[in-house]
Amino acid sequence: MPGFDVIVVGGGHAGCEAALAAARMGCSTLLLTLSLEKIALMPCNPAIGGVGKGQLTREIDALGGEQGRNTDRSFIQMKMLNTGKGPAVQALRAQADKKLYEDNMKRALVREPNLQILEGTVAALNVSRETIEGLTLTDGSFIPARSVVLACGTFMRGKIVVGDQIFPAGRMGEPPAIELSASLTHEGLELSRFQSATPPRIDARSINPDRMKVEPGDLDPELFSISSKPDNRRQIPCYLTNTTARTHEVVRNHLHLSPIKTGSVSSKGPRYCPSIDRKVINFPDRDRHPIFVEPEGRDTTEMYLQGLTTSLPVWVQEKVIRTVPGLENSRLMRPGYAVEYDYVIPDQLTLSLETKALKRLFLAGQINGTSGYEEAAAQGLVAGINAALGVQGHEPMILRRDEAYIGVLIDDLVTKGVDEPYRMFTSRAEYRLLLRHDNAHSRLAETGNRLGLVSDATLAEVFSHRQRIHALLATLKNTRLQPSERLNGALKSRGSATIREDQAAWQLLKRPELHLEDLKPFIAILSNQADGTIKNAEIELKYSGYIARQQEEIDRCASLEDTPIPPDFSFFDLEGITIEAREKLSRIRPSSLGQASRIAGVSPADISVLSIFLRAFR
Amino acid sequence: MGEAPTIAAISTSLGAGAIGIVRLSGAAAISICDKVFRGKLPLAEAGSHTIHLGTIFDTTSGEIVDEVLVSVMRAPATYTREDIVEVNCHGNAVAQQKVLSLFLDHGAQLATPGEFTRRAFLNGRIDLAQAESVARIVSAKTEAGLKMAVSQLEGVLSREIASIRSSILRVLATFEAGIDFSDEDVDEIDASDAGKQLRQLRDRIDELIETALTGRVLSEGVLTAIVGKPNVGKSSLLNSLVMRERAIVTEIPGTTRDTIEEIISVGGIPLKLTDTAGLRPANDEVEKLGVERSRQAIREADLILCLFDGSQREDDHDRALMTSVPADRTIYVINKCDLFRGRPPVFNQGLLPSRPVVISAMTRQGLRILKEKVADKVLGRSFPSPQSPVVTQERHRRLLADASEAIGRAEQGLRVRLGEELIAEELRLALNSLGEITGETFMEDLLDVIFQEFCIGK
After folding, report:
1. Which helix (H) or strand (E) segment is A196 a member of?
2. CATH number at residue A309
3. What is the rounded distance in angstroms from the CA atom of residue B35 to the CA atom of residue B101?
4. Which ipTM did the prediction report?
5. CB-CB: which of A85, A598, A604 is closest to B420?
6. Is some CB atom of chain A closer than 8 A to the CB atom of B327?
7. Is residue A334 part of a domain?
8. What is the span of the domain harbouring residue A224?
C-alpha cells in the first residue's frame, strides 16, 4: 500500500470530520474503518445538537466541517431549544434519519478526490524516534503515513453488558479493537476505562400516541449550516411520556440484576446520562421521570426511548417499558446495553490534540473520554486540520476559550482531564454570552477560510451580514424617538413605561420587555432590514453591556493567556511551588500561564511564583 | 537557583513587656544560632520542634547576653518551609537587639518587612488570602489587631466566604440546570424564592464589608484628626495625649515594623494621628491652609476630635466647623477650662449636636474623660469578637463589594424578568470575586451541585 499524508482511523463522527478536513486541505488521506457499512453511524440517540452541543455543530459548520450540513440534509425534526431563555443559551436540536445521515455522510466522503476509504483493523502504531510513521493492520500489512488521527470511539477493548450477558464488542454486533490499546500503552500512553449506555428501541407500530404528548418540530425551522437553503420538509413528531411509580417498582424489584449491583460494569459513566436503575436509586422521592420517544428515521419503525437507558436483562427491560403510559403494548426491537471501553487520558494531549508522547499522532472523539456526536465531530475537525497543518509544515490551529466552544472543549480535556465521559454544557463556557450559535460564523468563518475549508463566497456572505448588523446598530445609537401617543401606546401594550421626553432608541431597547420588532413602526430603517439582521442586531444590543464586561475580563486575562511557557521548561525545578502543583504542571506541560492557571491543584500562588520564574527564564 | 540566604529579625509585634522573639529562617539557621548559644547540647543535634534552655553569649567579649528558650523547627514542617530557630528573650529590647546583631555578625541577613511571609508564600506554605493576613500580622500594631489577624489566618473569613460561595453556587445551579437541561424535569425557578435567597446572601456579604472598618482600625489604628481653628490648642492636646501615653513604637532598627511615630494608644485603642495641623509645628502654615485643609482631614478620618476654645465666644470659623464635621464620627472638645470655672462663660455649648467634653490640654484636666469617650466612640461600633470574620484587606473589601453589587444586579434582574443567562452571569461574577479572595474556581463545583440537586439525565 502506498503511503498517505494522513490516515484517519475510525469512520464515526470524529473520523469523518478529520478525514474530510485533511483531504480538503490537500492531503492525501486514508479513512480506515472496521466496516464500510457503519460510517457515521448513530449508535445512541438519533439526534444532533441540543443546548451546548448545537453551538458546537454551528461552529463546526463555520470552520467548514460537515456535521451541520449533513444534519440539515438528513433531519426528520428540527427544533430550537430554550426559546423562553436568552439567545446565548438557545440552540438547535435535530432528530436525524439515522440511515439517511450515514448515506449522506458517505456520499460526502466519496466525493473527495484526495480521500480513500479502506476497511481494516489496526494492530499497531509504527513509531520511530517518537514520531508516528504509519500503521500495521491485523492482516500484517503496513501503511506508511506522515500523520495519524485515531478516532476509534468505544472500540478499544470494548465490552458490552446486558444483564448477565457480557461479551467483547465495540458496538452491538461489532467486534472490538483489541490490539490497539496494547500498542498505545507500549508507546507510553496511559489508558483508563469509561462506560456508556443506550436505551432500548421499540417498534413504532406498537405504541399508543394518544397516551403521550406530541412534540412536533418547529414550523419554518432554522438550520445548522450557512450553506443550507430554507427547508420545509414534512417533519416527524416525537412523543413525551414519563415513568410511573409502577416503573420504579419494577426497576427496584430487579435491581439485583442490574450491572450496577452485580458489578459487571465498574468504570465511570456519565452523571448527566444515568440509567433508569441509577435514577431510581438516586432519586427515590421522584415518582416520575420524563421519557421522550423519538423516531430513528422515515423508513424504519425503531423508536429510541430517551430517559430509559438501562442494561438490565432483556426480559426486565420489556417489563419496565410496559409500565410507561403509551408503551403498554410496545414490542422491543433492540435491548438497551452498556458498553465499557478504553480511552486515553486526554491530559496527555496538547491543545492541538496531538499526543505529547508521539509526534504527528492525533486523537479525537470518544478515545479522549468524551461523549456525543458533536463533541466527537468538533475534535475530529480540529485533529484533521492540525494533522494536515503539521504535514504541510504549518503551526497548528488552536482555538481559545473566548473564541469557541470547541476551544473550551479541548482546553478542558487537555488541561483538566476527565473523570466522566465529557459532554458540553453552556455552563462550561465562561464567555457564554459571546459564544453564541447565532454568531458562530462571524467568530470562525475567517479561520475556516484561511484553512481552505470555507469558500470565499461564504466568507463574503458572513462579512456582509456582520456589516449590516453593525450598520443597523450604529443607526440605532443615533436615533432618538419622540414621545407620541402612538409610541406610548405601543410601549404600554408591551407593559413598558411610557416616555415624556425624546429618548435614544438604544436606551429604550435596553428594556428587557421591548424588542426591535415593537419599534418597527417608529424607526424607518427597520422596515427594509432582513429578519436575520434585526434579530442579530437585537441580540448584540441587549447583550452589549454584558459583552463589554466579558471582553474586559478577556483582556484582563490576556496577559496570562499570552505568556507562553517554553515546551522545554522544567517545572520540577520550581522551589516555590507545591509538590502537587509541580507534578501536575510537569504532566500537563501547559503552553501558557493561562492554561497553567486552570489546572486543578495549581493555586493562584503557584501561578505568581511560576510567572516570576518565567520572567527569569527569558 | 541559588540557595536563599538565612534571614533574621525580631519578630514580636508588641513593644516592651511582651517576650521578644528573635527568629532565624534558612538553611544556616541552626548553625548560626549554635555559634552564640550555650545549652545542654548543640542545636545541631536537636530534634525538630524541640525547645532548649540556655544562654546567648557575645562571641567577642564572652559575656552572657540573655538567658533564653530556643525553639528548633526543621524544614519542611515550618512556617517558611525552611529551618527555623526562634530565640525567646527575656523581654528586654536591648537584649533582643543584641541577639539579632550577633546573628547578623555570624552570617544571617536582616529580614525585610514581611520576608518570612513571602518565603512561606513562595515555598508554597500558605495561600494568597493567608499570606495577606500574615502581612497584616507583620504590620499589626496592636494586640487586638494581632488577635484578629491570627483568627483570620485560621480561616474565619475564608470559612464565611466559602459558606457564602456555596450558597450562591446552589442558587446559580438552579439557573444553570434550567438552561443546560431545559428538556429535563427540572423544576421551574421560583423567582421570589431565589430573590429572597440572594437578598440574604447580599446581607451577609454587606455585613462582612461593614467589618472592614473595624478590621482596618484594629490593624492600622483609628485614623484620627484633631481639628479646630488656629490657636485652639490642637498641638497641646496632641502633646498631652502623646506625653502621657506610651507611644506604641519600637524604634529598634531592623525589626519588621514600619516606623509608627504617629500612633498613640488611648485607653488601649490605637489612634493614628494623621497629617493634620498639630502634627506639624508650623502654625503659620496651619493658618494659611485654614479650613480647606481641615476638611480633607475630616473626610478621611475615622474619628474627629473637634476642638473649641471655651474661653472665647464662638466665631464664624467655629460655627463653620460645627456644621462641617459628621456628628457620628466626632467628639466635641472644649479646651482651656483652666481659664474659667464650670461651664464656659461665653461659648454657646448649645450649638453642638452632642455634649462636649471639657478639658484643659495645659493642665490635663478632663483628659481621662476624653479618653473614655474615645473608647466608647470607637468600641461603640460593635466590635466583633476575634471569632467572627473581619475584613482587614482593602483588596478583600473591594472584591466583596463587587460581589455584593453583582448579586444586587441579579436581584434586580429577577424583578424585571431579565434572561436567566444574564442573572447567571451576575452570579458567576459574584462567585469569581469571592473566589479571588479564597483562590478557588467554581466550574467543577457547579456541575457537582447540578448533578447532586437535580434529577438530570436521559
Report:
1. strand A191-198
2. 2.40.30.260
3. 13
4. 0.88
5. A85
6. no
7. yes
8. 201-339
